[in-house]
UniProtKB/TrEMBL annotation:
Protein name: Cell envelope integrity protein CreD
Classification lineage: Bacteria, Pseudomonadati, Pseudomonadota, Alphaproteobacteria, Hyphomicrobiales
Pfam entry (one): CreD
Residues spanning the membrane: 34-55, 314-335, 342-360, 366-385, 397-415, 421-440
Record keywords: Membrane, Transmembrane, Transmembrane helix
Taxonomic source organism: Reyranella soli
Length: 449
C-alpha cells in the first residue's frame, strides 16, 4: 500500500508594500495627527476653488447680460446728458460768412431729477427725467460793438440756442425772450446746439439787457452735466437718490441722505478756458466743442450695489468662508472624538459652494437680502442634519449649525460695509489666524528614533 503524498503548499507570495516615502505619507494622512488633518482640509479648500471659480463665471455672464440690457434701455430712453446753453447766435458777413455767439452774463439753472426704473427681462435699469428751470441775462452791448467792426449782421437770422447730448429725449414748451413766447425748433448736425428759437432783431439792436426764461425736460440715464456758460453761473440739482457722485467743479454745498441729495454750484468765467463772445472766423475766440464740454460739472446717479455685484463680492470671501467652516468642523471633531471622512468634509464644502449659486439664482427673483436669508438657512439646516447623522448626537450638531449661522451672519455684515469692508475682513482673518496659532502652540515635530 502506497501513501499518496500531498503536494507541498505553495509559497505565500511576498506582500506588496508601497515605497517607503509613499507608505509614510499614507500613514501620516491616516493618523490622528492634527497636522495631517489640517493638510487634508487645506487641500480640500484649494480643490473647492474650482467650483467657486465656475460660479464666479456665471456671475460674470450675468453682469455682461445686465450691461447689455442697460445699454439697450439707454439707447431707447436716453443716455448720459450734458446741457449746454442758452446762447445768442448772430450770423454776419465779413468777406466770409461767420457767426458771433454771445454767452449770458448771469445764468441760473434749477434742476430736479426724478429717477425711474425700466425692466429688460430679468434686469432693472435706472433712468431719469430731469426738469431744468433756466433763467439767463444777456448784455448785448459787446455784441453790437463787435458787429460794428466792418461786419454786416444778419439780424433776421439771430437766434437763441441750447444743446443736449441726446436730442431724442428733450421736451420744452417754448422760451420767453423779454416776455415774448417763442417756440423751439430743432437744429440738425450741431455739435453744441440742439434747439433754436428766433430772436427779434429789435430785441438785440435796441436793448442793453435781454432776459431769457424757459423750462426744459430731458430724459437720460447715469449722468447729468451742466456747462457753465454764464459769466456767473449758479446751479442747483436735487433728486430722491441716495448715491450721487459729483464730478467737475465740486458743489459749494451738498446734502446727501438716504432720502436723496441736494447740491448747489456757483462758478465764474475765470475758471473756464473760453470767453463770453465767440467768433467763428477768429480761431482764438472760437473754442472747440471738446473744450466747452470739458468745463461741465454735474452728478452721476450711481447704481446701488445690486444682487449680482453683492454676490460677486460675497464669492470673493468664499475661500476664507470655507476655511473657517472647516476650522469649526475640526474643532468639533477634536471635541467630540468623531472623525469624519475627507469625502464628508468635501460634501460640506460643496454645500457652501452651492450656497453662492442659490444666492445668485434666488436673488434674481426676490432681491439680495431675502435670497441671502433663504440660501443661508437652507445650507445651515442641511449641514446641521448632516452633522447629526455623522456624530449621532443632537447637541453638537446644533452647536455646529449655530456657528455656521454665525459665520453666514458675519459674511452678510461684511458685505454691507463699503468703506471699511477690506479693513474688517483683514482684521477678522488676522484674528482667526491668531486663534489657530494659539490652538496649535503645543504641536511638536515628531522625532525620528
Amino acid at each position: 500500500m502506497t501513501d499518496d503524498a500531498l503536494p507541498p503548499p505553495l509559497p505565500t507570495p511576498p506582500r506588496q508594500t508601497a515605497p517607503g516615502g509613499l507608505q509614510q505619507l499614507r500613514t501620516f494622512l491616516a493618523s490622528d495627527n492634527l497636522v495631517a488633518r489640517l493638510a487634508v482640509l487645506g487641500f480640500l479648500t484649494l480643490v473647492l476653488t474650482i467650483p467657486l471659480n465656475m460660479i464666479g463665471g456665471v456671475i460674470a455672464d450675468r453682469l455682461t447680460f445686465e450691461a447689455e440690457a442697460t445699454k439697450s434701455v439707454s439707447e431707447a430712453w436716453g443716455g448720459e446728458q450734458t446741457f449746454v446753453g442758452p446762447m445768442i447766435v448772430v450770423p454776419y458777413r465779413r468777406t466770409y460768412l461767420g457767426a458771433l455767439t454771445l454767452l449770458p452774463e448771469k445764468l441760473t439753472i434749477d434742476g430736479h431729477i426724478q429717477p425711474q426704473q425700466r425692466r429688460r427681462g430679468l434686469f432693472s435699469v435706472n433712468v431719469y427725467t430731469a426738469t431744468l428751470d433756466v433763467t439767463a441775462e444777456f448784455q448785448t452791448s459787446a455784441l453790437r460793438e463787435l458787429l460794428a467792426d466792418q461786419r454786416e449782421a444778419e439780424w433776421s437770422a439771430a437766434r437763441l440756442e441750447i444743446g443736449v447730448s441726446d436730442t431724442r429725449s428733450i421736451d420744452g414748451d417754448g422760451v420767453e425772450i423779454d416776455g415774448q413766447k417763442v417756440d423751439w425748433t430743432s437744429i440738425s448736425g450741431g455739435s453744441l446746439s440742439s434747439l433754436k428759437a428766433a430772436v427779434a432783431a429789435a430785441t438785440l439792436s435796441d436793448r442793453e439787457v435781454v432776459q431769457v426764461r424757459f423750462r426744459i425736460a430731458i430724459a437720460g440715464s447715469g449722468k447729468l452735466a451742466l456747462v457753465p456758460l454764464g459769466r456767473r453761473t449758479e446751479a442747483t440739482l436735487d433728486a430722491p437718490w441716495p448715491s450721487p457722485s459729483f464730478f467737475g467743479r465740486l458743489p459749494l454745498s451738498q446734502t446727501v441722505a438716504t432720502g436723496g441729495f441736494s447740491a448747489k454750484w456757483a462758478t465764474s468765467d475765470l475758471g473756464r478756458p473760453y470767453g463770453q463772445l465767440w467768433d467763428t472766423l477768429n480761431v482764438r475766440n472760437d473754442p472747440s466743442a471738446k473744450t466747452v464740454l470739458g468745463s461741465a460739472f454735474g452728478v452721476t446717479l450711481l447704481t446701488p450695489v445690486d444682487a449680482y455685484r453683492e454676490t460677486d463680492r460675497a464669492i470673493k470671501y468664499g475661500i476664507m468662508f470655507i476655511g473657517l467652516t472647516f476650522a469649526a468642523s475640526l474643532l468639533f471633531e477634536l471635541a467630540t472624538g468623531t472623525r469624519p471622512h475627507a469625502a464628508q468634509y468635501g460634501l460640506i464644502g460643496l454645500s457652501l459652494c452651492v450656497f453662492y449659486l442659490l444666492l445668485l439664482s434666488i436673488s434674481e427673483q426676490i432681491g439680495f437680502a431675502l435670497a441671502y436669508l433663504a440660501s443661508a438657512a437652507a445650507v445651515v439646516i442641511q449641514a446641521t442634519i448632516y452633522s447629526r447623522a455623522l456624530q449621532g448626537r443632537t447637541a453638537p450638531a446644533l452647536a455646529f449649525g449655530t456657528i455656521l449661522a454665525g459665520l453666514f451672519g458675519g459674511l452678510y455684515g461684511l458685505l454691507q460695509l463699503e468703506d471699511v469692508a477690506l479693513l474688517t475682513g483683514s482684521v477678522v482673518l488676522f484674528a482667526v489666524l491668531s486663534i489657530a496659532m494659539w490652538l496649535t502652540r503645543n504641536l511638536h515635530r515628531q522625532q525620528l528614533a
